[in-house]
Design goal:
Helix content is 36%, strand content 28%. The chain is built from 13 helices and 21 strands. By secondary structure, it is α/β, with parallel strands linked by helices. Strand 11 and strand 12 form a beta hairpin. The radius of gyration is 21 Å and the shape is globular. The strands form 4 sheets. It has an 8-stranded mixed β-sheet. A 6-stranded mixed β-sheet has the order 9-3-2-13-20-19, with helices on one face. Bound molecules: flavin-adenine dinucleotide and 3,4-dihydroxybenzoic acid (DHB). Flavin-adenine dinucleotide binds next to helix 1, strand 10, strand 14 and helix 9.
Length: 395
C-alpha cells in the first residue's frame, strides 16, 4: 500500500487539475495529482481549441504560455453564417481589444504535464481514485489503485478535477446540491484534417441541412464540426460525405472549402449540465466535474480554468491568511460565471443548430436574431464580450 501526504490532493490531470497544481505551486502550496488514464491517452485526447483572453493571460502569468504564444493563433473576430449570408463580429472594437486564441487542449495538457515534471511535481498516471474519505472533517484522503496496489493520498483538501464521469461529484452528499441538465436532440461530428484552413477566422453556420463550424489548429491542420442526429454513427460518414456536407453548410458566394485527408473523426453528444453546489467540507469540484456546456462557443475548458482561479484564491486565503472565507464562498463565486456561460452556450447552440423544420416558427426566431446581430452594434457587442470571455475584475 502506497501512502502519500500533501496539502491539496488533486484528482484528474485534465486542464483543471494541471492548472490548479501549477498555480498552487506558484503560491508555495503543495499538491499531488492522480490520473486514471495513461500519459499518452490524456495528451492525445482531441477536444477544445478556443481559449478566451482570460485563459491565455492566466497561462502567460504562470509562465506556461511559451509554446501557446508561439504556435497558438490569435483571432480578432469571428464569422457568422445564416442561410449562406455571412457577417463578421470584430472583437477589438467591441471588447476594448480582447481576443481569442486557437490552441489545442491536448497541447495545453502536454505543456502543463511536461512543465510539472520539470518542476519535480508529483503526478501519477494510471492511478485511479476509487474513494474520497474524511472530507467532512479536517483530514480527508483519497484511495486509489496504482500498479495493481491500493494507495492512499492524505491531504488537507481534495480538489476533484475529474471530469463529468469522475468520482468527485458522486461523492458529494446527495442533499447538498441540485442537478440541472438538458440533452440536445443533436450531436457534433468533429474532424481533424491535414489541409490548410479555408478561413482566417472561425465560421459558425446555420444551414437548412444543419449546423457547421470551421475551426483550425495550424496553417496545415483544420478542425471542423457538423451537426448530426444523436443516433447517427461515424460509419455513415465517409470522408467524401463529410466534405460535401461541410461545403454545402458553410458555403457562401465566392468562397470554397479546401478538402484534405481526415486523420481523426468522432461524434460527441451535446448537453448542458451543472450542480448548484460545488463543495462540501474539504471536498471541492472544478471544471467538467461540476458542469458541462454544449461546445458551441467554446466555453468548457475556459470555465474549468476560471473555477481553478477561484479555488486558488480560496487556498491562498487558507494557507497564507488563515481564513476559510474565500473557500467557503467558492461555489457562490464560481457559479455566477457558470450560469453566464450556460446561457451563452445555449444561445449559440440554439441560434445555429437546426432544431425544427426549415421555415418553422423556431427557424424564423433564429433568423430574426441573426438579422438583428448584423445591424445592431449592441447585440454584436453582447456576443463579442461573452465569446472572448468577461474579465475577472468585472464578473
Ligand atoms: P477533463 O478534461 O475531462 O479532465 C478530467 C480528468 O480526470 C481526465 O483526464 C480523466 O481521465 C480524469 N479522471 C476521471 N476520473 C478519475 C478517477 N476516478 N481517478 C483519476 N482520474 C480521473 N472547451 C472550450 O473551452 N473551448 C472549446 O473550443 C471546446 N471545444 C470542445 C469540443 C469538443 C468536441 C468537446 C467534447 C469539448 C470541448 N470543450 C471546449 C470542453 C472541454 O474540452 C472541457 O470542458 C475540458 O476538458 C474540461 O477540463 P477538465 O479538466 O475539467 O476535465
Ligand atoms: C472549437 C471548438 C468549439 O466548440 C468552438 O466553439 C470553437 C472552436 C475548436 O475545437 O477549435
Amino acid at each position: 500500500m502506497k501512502n502519500i501526504r500533501t496539502q491539496v490532493g488533486i484528482i484528474g490531470a485534465g486542464p483543471a487539475g494541471l492548472t490548479l497544481a501549477h498555480w498552487l505551486k506558484q503560491h508555495g502550496i503543495a499538491s499531488v495529482i492522480l490520473e486514471n488514464r495513461s500519459r499518452e491517452y490524456v495528451s492525445s485526447r482531441v477536444r477544445a481549441g478556443l481559449l478566451e483572453q482570460n485563459t491565455v493571460d492566466i497561462y502567460k502569468n504562470l509562465g506556461l504560455a511559451e509554446r501557446l504564444l508561439k504556435e497558438g493563433q490569435e483571432h480578432h473576430g469571428v464569422y457568422l453564417n445564416f442561410d449562406g449570408k455571412r457577417i463578421r463580429i470584430p472583437f477589438g472594437e467591441l471588447t476594448e481589444g480582447r481576443n481569442i486564441t486557437i490552441y489545442g487542449q491536448q497541447e495545453i495538457v502536454k505543456d502543463l504535464t511536461d512543465a510539472w515534471y520539470a518542476l519535480g511535481g508529483e503526478l501519477y498516471f494510471e492511478a485511479e481514485a476509487t474513494k474520497i474519505e474524511g472530507f467532512e472533517g479536517i483530514s480527508p484522503s483519497i484511495h486509489f489503485m496504482y500498479q495493481g496496489e491500493e494507495g492512499r493520498l492524505e491531504c488537507d483538501f481534495v480538489a476533484a478535477c475529474d471530469g463529468f464521469h469522475g468520482i468527485g461529484r458522486k461523492t458529494l452528499p446527495k442533499d447538498s446540491f441540485h442537478e440541472f441538465s438538458t440533452t440536445y436532440p443533436f450531436s457534433w461530428l468533429g474532424i481533424l484534417a491535414n489541409v490548410a484552413p479555408s478561413t482566417d477566422e472561425l465560421i459558425y453556420a446555420y444551414h437548412e441541412n444543419g449546423f457547421a463550424l470551421h475551426s483550425l489548429r495550424s496553417d496545415k491542420v483544420s478542425r471542423l464540426y457538423i451537426q448530426v442526429d444523436n443516433d447517427d454513427h461515424i460509419d455513415n460518414w465517409s470522408d467524401e460525405r463529410i466534405w460535401e456536407e461541410l461545403s454545402i453548410r458553410l458555403g457562401t458566394e465566392g468562397w470554397t472549402l479546401n478538402a484534405g485527408p481526415i486523420f481523426e473523426k468522432s461524434i460527441t453528444p451535446m448537453r448542458s449540465f451543472f450542480t448548484d453546489n460545488m463543495q462540501f467540507g474539504r471536498l471541492f469540484l472544478a471544471g467538467d466535474a461540476a458542469h458541462i456546456v454544449p461546445p458551441t462557443g467554446g466555453k468548457g475548458l475556459n470555465l474549468a480554468v476560471a473555477d481553478v482561479k477561484h479555488l486558488v484564491d480560496g487556498f491562498v486565503g487558507y494557507y497564507h491568511n488563515n481564513s476559510m472565507k474565500m473557500l467557503d464562498s467558492y461555489s457562490e463565486i464560481a457559479l455566477k460565471r457558470i450560469w453566464r456561460a450556460q446561457d451563452f452556450s445555449n444561445f449559440m447552440t440554439t441560434l445555429f443548430h437546426k432544431q425544427d423544420v426549415h421555415g418553422s416558427f423556431t427557424y424564423h426566431l433564429q433568423k430574426a436574431k441573426f438579422d438583428y446581430i448584423g445591424i445592431s452594434k449592441a447585440y454584436a457587442t453582447t456576443i463579442a464580450e461573452n465569446y472572448v470571455g468577461l474579465p475577472f475584475d468585472k464578473f
